[in-house]
Amino acid sequence: MPKRKLNENDVPEASEPSSPAAEPAAAPSKADEPLNATTSSFSAFGLEPRLLRAIRGQRWASPTHVQEKAIPLALEGKDILARSGTGTGKTAAYLLPILDRILRRKNTPVTSSLILVPTKELAGQVTKLTQSLTAYCGQDVRVQNLASNQSEVVQKAKLAENPDIVVATPARVAANMNNGALSLKALAHLVVDEGDLVLGYGFKEDLDYISQNMPKGVQIFLMSATLSTDLEAVKGLFCRDPVILALDDLEKESQLVKQYVLPCGEDEKFLLIYAMFKLNLIKGKTIVFVGDVDRSYRVKLFLEQFGIKSCVLNSELPLASRLHIVEEFNKNIYNILIASDETELLGARKKDDESRPKKKAKTDEGKPDSGVSRGVDFRNVSCVLNFDMPANYKGYFHRIGRTARAGKSGTAISFVIPKEKYRKHKPTTFAGAENDEEVLRKIEKHQKEGQKIEDWTFDMKRLEPFRYRFADALRAVTRIAVREARVKELRMELAKSQKLSRYFEEHPDELAHLRHDQTLNHPARIQPHLKHVPDYLLPGGKKPQDIGFVSLDKPKTRKFVRGKGKKVVRGRSGKIDPLKTFNARGKGKK
């Protein structure tokens, strides 16, 4: 180490090295560091230091594939069209470059970035991640979420502060542009997240209006899980020659999923799901996909008969409740989540432009695409159970894409109703099951090379001891019980969401006491004996002990001794008082 001495200003400085070999090599600058597909850390991107500190707080060890490819191109100012599955880091891939630009050119408060999302939940997730990444930026970056249920006056007040980033649905943006609350004159970045869904949910007119009033030179990010015709239409509206990153194919990701199919009767679905969870045939967290909301509560009430807890992700519930359910599920508080594709999970279908599609989203087969399996990031899901098959093969791949993420393995099990067993058990019939075999053939047709759906060889005879219990529980889940359960949970969640929201804002630790897997059955409907499984019912379990011959004759009872147990009480007139006289042998017997 070179010696140090004081200069004429009394400042210590290093002396001349004794030889050229002793001179230390200059540290390479960030600009000299190679940036390629094998980037191992976020620091290689040259992001603003406060963002790097927030990334460390998120415990992101290294960039994902989409982040490695998209962030350098975004920092160069190029338009990007990226296809990548949910949970692969698309949100951070466009947020980090946008936040870096905002922090470096910060001067006057203007709305420079607009993020369009199809649903309220996705808007909440984007806003939350933005706030986490700007945790060390003070007031240098401000973000506003306009997708929540707020009055026009409140939204105007928020936009009057000129937030740097606005997250909203296209309908909300168009409405605020019309009333003059939102101006796009200083817009520098536009993001369309889940681009195929944004157009598919009927926002085409709003997107046209936004594109016509958008200034030139705006950097465009189009993010989606698929490269569909809807996404091509969005691309034509906003950008001409983007860099296309086709990174993750949902069908390719499904190669990490072990896929099984089990043909069964309509009522046998309930018998199988009972056995799977009661005998621990499924390990870890499970998402159970059903056909509609009523079906969700039917399955939940059925499982409650056996003491198996689960929660329903229902689009009718308040936004705060749905977000909390997903968050708690990701924290491993709930292990069984029941969801449906009847309505779009991420945004409740209410009578407003933003959450009800003007035209139903159609796939190439003319059926609605899977809604529950898109947009929300479910973490560490071990198994996807298709209690009811989806309407088309694309919905199937989106569903099973919830498991086997980040290199982990997963399992997908699908119950299929053969044609000859359809409508054979009317209380449990589901109309969508009529085309199960046809959908299964298309799923098998679109499997990648080396990937296939295997038959789940399960001996149904081993479940015979469970049948009487299962039938007893299934009869208790009536239509009236399902309707009452839906109303009961809706009232409970509304009370939590409205009356207690302010309290939980002030006491966030208490939020952990809110549970969404509470019993919805009336106490009279629960049969406690069904909660416990005797050993003799278990496949290969203990057999009932032989207690020998038991006679069918009625056992002899002890004879009543005459004169004992008889009490006679007479009144003043000497007559027997029948109200005070007790005859142990019965009326008229002596």
Automatic annotation (TrEMBL):
Record GO biological process: gene expression; ribosome biogenesis
SUPFAM superfamilies reported for this sequence: P-loop containing nucleoside triphosphate hydrolases
GO CC term (a single one): cytosol
Residues annotated as domain Helicase ATP-binding: 71-245
EC assignment: 3.6.4.13
Main location: nucleus
Keyword terms of this UniProt record: ATP-binding, Helicase, Hydrolase, Nucleotide-binding, Nucleus, Ribosome biogenesis, RNA-binding
Domain DEAD-box RNA helicase Q: residue ranges: 40-68
Domain of life: Eukaryota
Catalytic reactions on record: ATP + H2O = ADP + phosphate + H(+)
Database matches in Pfam families: DEAD (PF00270), Helicase_C (PF00271)
Subcellular location: Nucleus
Bias (Low complexity): 12-29
Any one Gene Ontology molecular-function term assigned to this protein's record: RNA helicase activity
Basic and acidic residues bias (residue ranges): 348-368
ATP-binding among keywords: yes
EC main group: hydrolase
Boundaries of every Helicase C-terminal domain copy: 256-464
Function field: ATP-binding RNA helicase involved in the biogenesis of 60S ribosomal subunits and is required for the normal formation of 25S and 5.8S rRNAs.
Assigned protein family: Belongs to the DEAD box helicase family. DDX56/DBP9 subfamily.
Protein name: RNA helicase
